[in-house]
Design goal:
The complex is a heterodimer of chains A (about 290) and B (about 325). An eight-stranded parallel β-barrel of chain A has the order 1-2-3-4-5-6-7-12. In chain A, strands 8-11-10-9 form a four-stranded antiparallel sheet, with no helix packed on it. The two termini of chain A are about 25 Å apart. Helix content of chain A is about 25%, strand content about 20%. Chain B has an eight-stranded parallel β-barrel with strand order 1-2-3-4-5-6-7-9, surrounded by six helices. In chain B, α7 links the parallel β6 and β7. In chain B, α11 packs antiparallel against α12. Chain B is globular, with a radius of gyration of 20 Å. The chains are: A alpha/beta (about 290), B alpha/beta (about 325). Chains A and B meet through α4, α5, α6, β8 and β9 of A and α4, α5, α6, α7 and β8 of B. Chain B: InterPro entries: Peptidase_U32 (IPR001539), RNA/ubiquinone_mod_enzymes (IPR051454). Chain B: This is Peptidase U32.
């Protein structure tokens, strides 16, 4: 049976979940204001088994200690597993993350999207469960691809032996993947480790400079890597569209990340893989879309 | 501090070496790769590669005659299992030709090459996004000799990283090719122009909304529109000011020349000029710019920065900060 996890970047949203008597997919979707039911409602009655908290794409969105502690307490009260996600980071943010990792109970998953974080986990946090995030498990995920042939230019190596050897060296115990454009169930098969798949949004790319994060900066400071944003991404989101493109996947910008929405065929591939036991977890985007 | 320059043909090696390049890097898509895998995706670029092993041998020979090291890129963002074996073959071929280093973008391939008993140096590509000392330590443990740092680190972050990680060299971008997104976490393709080109330059229209579903106020809409206008302006700078050059042929666009004194003082071993697929004239002028700035380092930081700013005779463009790799 595939587990269902709910991913939250902004941990203030935990309050909305706390008001729910039961954490079903449909209930969480209503509480979080989802525009569309993932998988056309096929998972509506499923119960959330895990909270997947924290940012995958921006170090400035790492949760405060208080918000993380509240999320951990909520998860414990509902019997939920917890995975703390973190993005690619410079050293200052890695110091912030280190302090958060100390708050996690033994056995908690730490989802890293930075090789340095996995190195840190292996060296300093042996009681946590290291997970390789979807930004490390690379594949071609361009929402503009006209056909599956384009992805063949660079086939993914997520299940390749050399990549697996590095994961093993770092003690990684599971991996996370996206469903790429034109995904098939076979894309998720063939590896040694359990696989979680994010839905219904994939991440095509992310930056360190941030378009929306520059909103309140003076002109000279805009789009600099040393930005001091006000987390405008928590307030604003944006739809991207190409005027003449008819086959693009629905594309959005949220903070530093460019996201795409799964097509019905991609969603079907994820469900097929779940039924086949190739993936053991579906991670639903709770608030980052 | 070494200057690292790109070549796409053997004919480019000597002019670049004579202009000041200490290291040359190049790419190759072996014929056997295309036949076996049905794609030209042996590295990050479909274009700008050498014609074959014979030309690679010639690049190595000419570079060696001029005291230049040669690196070969294996910097696709990821490789499949069968491709790993083909990369080992290519590495052995390059080593036999007398090449010095491989620039590797896939962590699994990096570890595989390190365990294969090669005498080649291993350079971690910017595709591996080394942003912190833990990552640098991991790459050192895996057998890397150098890390090519990604874009959009600050000078302070770079110098701290270098100081914290002895036993491995660092290379930083200095000119050209400013990715908008995080190169090592960009999962898109540079499509042909007719299909949109790089996603960061594509003709996307943007429609902002509030995440809470409320309508944007007029003030918010105006502020967002103004920010978007600035973003488009920044993109113009990030993409080489419309791919323009000075009268002398010096390219505008992404530039870290002013930071060269700090990078040198901070222990950065090499600086990288991007753009394998560019024309020779662009590469040559780029090397000249870096070399002129490097030669001025002995005159002090202010003098070197002044020279760097004056090279293009357009201080107004420098003043925006939008061309700067290191703000």
């Amino acid at each position: 049976m595939t587990d269902i996890a709910l991913a939250l970047v902004d941990l203030r949203h935990v309050e909305r979940l706390a008001a729910l008597p039961a954490l079903t997919v449909a209930g969480c979707g209503a509480a979080l204001g989802w525009r569309h039911a993932p998988f056309d409602g096929a998972l509506a009655d499923r119960t959330i088994a895990r909270l997947h908290v924290g940012p995958e794409c921006c170090e400035r969105l790492l949760p405060s200690r208080a918000l993380l502690e509240a999320a951990l307490a909520f998860a414990a009260s509902r019997g939920l597993g917890v995975s703390l996600a973190s993005p690619l980071m410079a050293d200052a943010a890695l110091g912030t993350l280190r302090a958060l990792l100390h708050l996690l109970p033994a056995g908690t998953e730490a989802v890293a999207n930075d090789w340095g974080t996995l190195h840190l986990l292996a060296a300093e946090f042996p009681a946590l469960v290291p997970v390789a995030g979807r930004m490390l498990c690379k594949m071609v995920k361009d929402p503009r691809l006209p056909s599956a042939e384009w992805a063949r230019l660079y086939p993914h190596g997520i299940h390749a032996a050399p990549f697996g050897a590095v994961l093993a060296r770092l003690g990684v115990q599971r991996i996370e993947m996206d469903a790429a454009p034109f995904a098939t169930a076979a894309d998720f098969a063939g590896g040694r480790l359990p696989v979680g798949v994010h839905a219904p949004f994939g991440i095509a790319t992310k930056g360190r400079t941030c378009r929306i994060g520059a909103l309140h900066q003076n002109d000279a400071a805009k789009f600099a890597p040393s930005f001091g944003c006000s987390r405008e991404c928590l307030t604003y989101t944006a739809a991207l569209a190409r005027p003449q493109a008819t086959t693009d996947l629905e594309t959005r910008m949220r903070g530093t990340a460019m996201l795409y929405h799964h097509s019905p065929a991609m969603a079907a591939a994820v469900l097929d893989a779940a039924r086949a036991g190739t993936i053991d977890r579906i991670i639903l985007s709770g608030d980052w879309h | 501090m070494r200057i690292v320059a790109p070549v796409s043909s053997a004919a480019e090696v000597v002019p670049l070496a004579e202009a000041g390049a200490d290291e040359i890097y190049c790419g190759l898509v072996p014929r056997s790769w295309v036949e076996r895998f049905g794609s030209a995706g042996a590295n990050r670029r479909i274009f700008g590669n050498l014609s074959g092993e014979d030309e690679l041998a010639e690049v190595v020979r000419r570079a060696r005659d001029h005291g230049c090291r040669v690196s070969l890129v294996m910097n696709a963002p990821h490789y499949s299992g069968p491709q790993a074996g083909a990369l080992l073959d290519l590495a052995e071929c390059f080593q036999a030709l007398g090449g010095e280093a491989l620039i590797v973008g896939d962590i699994g391939i990096l570890a595989l090459l390190a365990g294969h008993g090669l005498t080649l140096r291993l350079h971690v590509s910017s595709l591996l996004s080394c942003r912190n000392k833990e990552a640098a330590a991991l790459y050192r443990e895996l057998g890397a000799h150098r890390v090519v740092l990604p874009r959009d680190l600050t000078v302070a972050e770079i110098t701290a990283l270098v100081a914290a990680t002895p036993g491995i060299e660092f290379e930083a971008f200095i000119l050209n090719d400013g990715c908008v997104f995080e190169e090592g976490q960009c999962h898109t393709i540079h499509l042909p122009g007719r299909l949109g080109g790089p996603i960061c330059l594509d003709n996307h229209q943007i429609e902002h909304a509030r995440a809470d579903g409320a309508a944007l106020s007029e003030a918010e809409a105006a502020m967002l529109a103004a920010n978007d206008a600035k973003y488009r302006e920044w993109l113009w700078y990030r993409f080489s000011c419309g791919f323009s050059v000075t009268e002398e042929g010096y390219p505008f666009g992404p530039c870290g020349l002013c930071a060269l004194p700090q990078l040198a003082a901070g222990g950065v071993a090499a600086v990288k000029i991007a753009g394998r697929e560019g024309p020779l004239a662009r590469k040559l002028r780029s090397v000249e710019m870096v070399q002129r700035t490097r030669l001025s380092l002995g005159e002090g930081e202010a003098a070197a920065q002044g020279l760097a700013r004056d090279l293009r005779h357009r201080p107004d463009l420098c003043d925006t900060g939008y061309m700067c790799y290191y703000r």
